Amino acid sequence: MASAAAPESYAFAPEERPVFPGSPYSPTHPPLRRVGYALIALLTGITSNLVNSMVTVNLPNLAGAMGLYVAQVAWFPAVYVAFNATANLTLVRARIQFGIPAVMHFLLVIYGAAVVYQLILPSFPVALFTRAMCGMTMAALSTITLYNLMQVFSAKTRPLALLIGISIPQLGLALARLIPVEALALDGWRGLHLIELGLILAVMASTIALPVPPTDRTKAFEPFDAITIGLMVPGFLLVCAVLSVGRYLWWTDTPWLGVALAAAVPLLAAAILFEHFRARPLIQTRWIGTADMLRFALIAFVVRVALAEQTYGSVGLLTLGGLINDQLHLLFMLVVLAMIAGVVVAALTLKPDRIPLQIMAASLCIALGAWMDTDVSNLTRPPQLYASQMLIAFGTTLFIGPSLLFGILRVLQRGPEYLVTFVVLFSATQNLGGLAGSALLGSLQYDRVRYYTAMLSQYLDAGNPIVVQRLQAGAAAVSGVIVDPAQRTAQGGALLSQALAREANLLAFADVFRAVALIALANAVYLAIRILVVQRLDAQKKATA
């Protein structure tokens, strides 16, 4: 049935009907209104990643301000990712049944209220609830970004709306590092929450001032949906908690990590099994189990793991050198420009049969950028990482848009009932891939630091003249402030130990970058082989036809 919000004075043409259930009509708009939709898409797209990125890039500082351990605040990204990845289990059908504005504004109000409560009475439980609402709301904002851009482009060029719309949120993480830390840390980090609240209000105002056209509303939810959602959300939350917290508490030292994984497996398995035998399932399990979709999920997951080189590897290396966000502004300005260039190139080269080539090219860019970073030293600073990080940023947006379009094309071939399945699958690969990437690289870096520390310590022989010289130099460096010779000698030894730890960390980060390069290169090689196999099979079919 038609939405009650639909204007009675306008009769939509058949070609203006929604592409998917729950999506808006797409009439022809005047140029000024198109500009308005484009600006709202830019606001919602950036906001959909910026608000969470402001938290994740400042986790250690937030821990200190809240009087928590870093392992405790690591629950913030875990909760966000779990609710963001599973949000579309609810949101897709909610938009079909209640309409786009009702769902969007309901989430914004609840999320805004949580932020206000956190401002007035900050606490760890409230912060966790705020991150959960942030995850759900930002998932809805990502979709609203696509819907607004669909109003900008004509039906013929509408795939560009999807490509650009999914690429805009990728700018959020880089933009979060451009915000001065002083602005965020104002009055016990209330500055961060005020910016968060300001963005919520800006999105609310803009979407009310210029709403997207209505959608066809009809009953969508079924009672059994609650069972699937009730199993999937806690299952995802447990997996995300393990991935986020594991490298801080360490995997083999914390028994509850294993218990959490052991509990997550039956929860997720029960959800999948329950959906497999439903008449109208949320998740089309038979489609996910096809070779085509399994390959897609694996490739998308692996690329997102490799992209952790930028979010964990390069930033961790520069932090080791004593740099803070405010000293990385130029680096991330260049990253933003490279991401925009990736969107432009992806749009200019976009064709359905070129999507695997685009993803392969993105993997090669990531591999090359990571390999360039393996040549690190004590003198490595942002200028030495400009080229490599721009390559990785370029690969990010060259990958994300085409990969979304690959799945959407498959949904169009199958039918609208497969939309929830694809959206949840795509969101899960990107969210879990990001967490898994940080967990993998962080664990690898920690393990290699221990290895290199032990290896370098073998050369610290007290009888070695070079070691003696370094100890004496360290003692001489503090002679102006320490009078006691024994204390000076001890400080000289401490300075040498610090130098050893710094070198061990540098060698460990070099190994991390090599691992990322190999992962991305292996992904590109697999895609190249797959492309050749498909081309050969197509040639054989044509020859026998």
Walkthrough of the structure:
This protein is mainly α and 545 residues long. The protein contains 22 helices and no strands. The chain has helices at 31-56, 59-66, 70-73, 75-86, 88-98, 100-120, 124-150, 158-167, 171-176, 181-184, 186-209, 225-249, 255-276, 285-288, 291-306, 308-320, 329-348, 355-372, 382-414, 419-457, 465-477, 485-544. Helix 15 (291-306) crosses helix 20 (419-457), helix 18 packs antiparallel against helix 22 (485-544) and helix 21 (465-477) packs across helix 22. The longest helix is centred in the C-terminal third of the chain and has 60 residues, at 485-544. The two termini are 46 Å apart.
In short:
The chain is mostly helical. The protein has helices spanning about 30-55, 60-65, 70-75, 75-85, 90-100, 100-120, 125-150, 160-165, 170-175, 180-185, 185-210, 225-250, 255-275, 285-290, 290-305, 310-320, 330-350, 355-370, 380-415, 420-455, 465-475, 485-545.
